[in-house]
Amino acid sequence: MAKIPELLAPVGGPEALRAAVASGASAVYLGGKAFNARGYVTNFDLKELEAAITYAHVRGVKVYLTFNTLVADSELEEAAVFLTRVYELGADAIIVQDMGIAYLALQCVPDLPVHASTQMSVHNTPGARLLKDLGFQRVVLARELSLDDIRQIKAESRLEVEVFVHGALCVCYSGQCLMSSLIGGRSGNRGRCAQPCRLEYALVDKDGQVVVDPEKIGPHLLSPRDLNTIRYLPRLIAAGVDSFKIEGRAKRPEYVATVVRLYRRALDLYAERGAEGYGVSPGTERELAQAFNRGFTCGYLFGRPGRELMSYKRANNRGVFLGRVISSRGRRARLHLAAELAVGDGIEVWVSRGGRVGTEVKRILLEGQPTQVGGAGQVVEVELPQRVAPGDRVFKTADARLLAQARASYQVPASGQTVPVHLAAVIAAGRPVEVSLRDAEGHEGRAVSAKPAEKALKHPLSAANAGELLLRLGNTPYRVEDIALDVAPGTLVPFSELNNLRREAVERLTAARLAAYRRKPVAAELCLPARFKPAGSKRTRVKPRLAVTVNSFARAEAALAGGADVLYFGGETYNGERPPRPEELEQLARLGAEQGREIVASSARITADPELTALAPYFRTAERLGLPVQVGNLGALRLAQEMGVPELYLDWPLYTFNALTLAQWEKLGARRLTLSPELNREQIRDLADTGFELECVVQGQLEMMVSEYCLPGSVLGGLSSQNRCSRPCVRQGGFALRDRKGVLFPLGCDQSCRMHIFNAMDLCLLAEVPFFQEAGIAVIRIEGRNRPPEYIKRTTAAYRRVLDADEPEKAGARELPALEKLSPAGVTRGHFYRGVV
Fold first, then answer.
1. What per-residue confidence (pLDDT) applies to 416?
2. Residue 537, CA atoms < 13 Å, CB-side half-sphere
3. pLDDT at 353
């Protein structure tokens, strides 16, 4: 039988920690007060972290510290101090997004395991192999992968593989979302996601007409259902998954207790019966749904789903269907129950008009008489906050019994949260009394009395009395699994002495168990970020080169006509456009050589393993022609390395956010780095001082999301896990999302049927060209892949004139009004001044 995976539970605070451990988690993940992707939950300060790690370790549970946000250069010293404290406290691993933090940890505390967060968007085998070579121990895979993808990455990467099995889903690739930060300044990459994907939108065509009626399918067009894979655990085990991860650090402790308990029970059943004897009962499914659900999905395990992935009608907990309203009088309603209803339960009526009506049930009448419980099939009367209509559906959103059961599991000590031990005692007159506790790993706590036991004159200690006293471990982390008592007849030992010896043995066993996790303090100077930062020199004032990203020959010609110095050719194409071919790259390389322009072979942001195979001939052409290659994910980076491309440039989705990340990219052979668009001007200036060849995006519609879920394909093209899409993006094209304020966010469906969501307004930093010159930024870039050639030509020409002007400030002021007219939705300076929270 395959190895049973680790069950990894979410912990947002101390109570959730007790819930997770009591319910059978083999590991937990939690965050400090900073540098973690759930900055809005309770989390733990250093003192609380120490207590949490001790609590878990004594009970044999591992603790992984989430260090999974991007870290600014100004925060590196604070982050380094926090890293060393976490190391010294005995955390079992850190989960990181920021490559600079990973670099610091691997250099400074190399025996602290590093796990790659799902925020790193690892979605292909070469990307996982790269992490393994860098020293990572584990990768938390992107949630968009199928069982076959997971199996391949596990088999070929030699990394531990962690997979989400239950909880909320992001609609796009985690770590690749700028929607929250661009709309409201709250960055998901900094732990402050405002969840704009849960809001209401309408899908409109190029004429602004709504193409799907929100009243029919629902208005929450970007809101996924919750992941639930409990039926498929044997298949995930067979794929080689090492750790099953439950999402939910923002959920209440009762949720953690319930979901962890049910998944632990499922894993125990598999361990007992194997795949053939495995099954999930309707009761288990109902309890999972009652704990929290937006409807359930198995995600991408069996291919790309369509509508079945989404919860269009509701973005929060929908509860479990309870019954229907059969009549109402004022605020009293008679309900025909399809399931049990009890006093204290939370219910919600989905009214035909006016949204939802919710309440906690205070009183139930059955045939006119008060009752505590109404059963399935019965008609009961309850009081609601407002009038409802016959036929309205009723859902139970909170089950008082289930919540009480969950609370009892971690508020009252139970066998599920204790460590089995062997108890031994030797008690005989004339020799010291010995009491010992030993766990399965061989840790021992031994207590010996200061004085020998005496011979009893009247009331000798019996083995039964000794056992009763020594077995009193109820308020400890231990339970006695077997006992060996050697009590000589006629021996006298005071009960208080035995109690003291038992307590001392417990303390010594606890100390022995914790000693295995103890680490020596790290000298602060050894982890100073300055020791690991690149030893570059500040770049002098320079005229930046002007780059444009394009994905067609017509766009490339427009950029060259406008005066571009650098062309990034390749990557995504949208709405049926043909991707660039190697022969076009070759033709463009000749044109570039004639005109003295730099041509760079560019790749898509997301490239699954089959796409990397298809990308190889394109990179091979670039290598033969001596052209640089630009990549936006770790797998494409590794592919480019293996193919020996002459120069390697890294795009912004790899998130260069601090100087330590620069150092890591330098070691991997990168020469030019595009900075994250979430950096502000001062942060850009700080990184420019390192002397690296840096690039900044200054113009165009920034991509806010990339998703395997395609909205037009799902609601218009018939896309599902069983049916192929009819490609409405090709037939109609020009789709956009309209939010509640009427703002339109353009959509692009690429050649791999991924959906891309772009910002409504164009980024425009034309007036800031003098800053980039003064800071020493080597390249400024216009994003042109989703824009027509005429836009590209005119914007490129405007930036060319400003760059070439003797007084760029005045030139920028002259050019700006015309440039703004090219963007009907308006322009934005993005994060250039404000940065992100």
1. 59
2. 2
3. 72
Three-class SS of residue 617?
helix
CB atoms within 10 A of CB 458: 5
Pairing, β 332-337 against β 373-374: unpaired
What architecture is the 6-169+225-285+295-301 domain classified under in CATH?
Answer: Alpha-Beta Barrel (3.20)
Asked if CATH classification 3.90.1170 holds for the domain at 418-515, the reply, yes or no, is: no
DSSP label at 520? P
d(CA 503, CA 445): 10
Alpha-carbon span 201 to 206, nearest angstrom: 16
Whether the CB-CB separation of 259 and 18 falls below 8 Å is answered with no
Q: Parallel, antiparallel, or unpaired for β 454-455 and 755-758?
A: unpaired
Are the C-beta atoms of residues 598 and 625 closer than 8 Å to each other? no
Which tokens is 6 given?
């680790």
Query: Per-residue pLDDT tens for 631-661?
Result: 999 999 999 999 999 999 999 999 999 999 9
Kindly provide the b/e burial profile for residues 233-271, where b requires at least 16 CB atoms within 10 angstroms of the residue's own CB: bbbbbebbbbbbbbbbbebbbbbbbbbbbbbbbbbebbe
In this structure, are residues 767 and 813 in contact, taking their beta carbons and an 8 Å threshold? yes
Give domain limits for the chain: 6-169+225-285+295-301, 320-401, 418-515, 537-701+761-828
First-to-last C-alpha distance (Å) of the chain: 48
pTM above 0.90, yes or no: yes
Any idea which fold 320-401 has? Elongation Factor Tu (Ef-tu); domain 3 (2.40.30)
Which one-letter DSSP state was computed for residue 357? E
The percent of the chain in helix, strand and coil, each rounded to the nearest 5, is 35, 25, 40
Q: Are 547 and 696 in contact, with CB atoms under 8 Å apart? A: no
pLDDT confidence of residue 321: 97
Cβ atoms of 274 and 1 within 8 Å: the answer is yes
Are both 320-401 and 418-515 of the same fold?
no
pLDDT for residue 721: 83
Tokens 């999930």, residue?
280
Report pLDDT for 428.
95
Residue 547 in contact with residue 568, Cβ under 8 Å? yes
Query: Which parts of the chain have pLDDT scores under 50?
Result: 415
Which of the following CATH numbers is that of domain 537-701+761-828: 3.20.20.110, 2.30.30.40, 3.40.50.720, 1.10.3720.10? 3.20.20.110
Rounded to whole angstroms, the Cα distance separating 407 from 535 reads 55
Specify the DSSP element, H or E, that contains 233: helix 233-238
- The per-residue pLDDT for 833 is 94
Q: Which two tokens stand for residue 531?
A: 């020791």
**Alpha-carbon distance 364 to 413, whole Å?**
33
In this prediction, residue 837 carries a pLDDT of: 74
Residues in the chain: 837
